[in-house]
Amino acid sequence: MKWPWKRDVSLTQPRRVSTEQMELETAKEILQEVFHARPSDVEYMILSRLEERGCRQECEEGSWPATFSLNE
Fold this sequence. Notes:
mainly alpha
């Protein structure tokens, strides 16, 4: 019999998430809050911005640009 407080340690280890992924998710949340937008609207805003920069084809294939900068 296993005691509830003696759980397997492997189940409690945190997942690894890249800092870039966390930054992107945070930016999306900020855009949603500032513009009172739905997640789908935020995705559309990002894709529109990338289209202006000429990155649309890469994004449609499922790969995001390696970097994202507000200065460009």
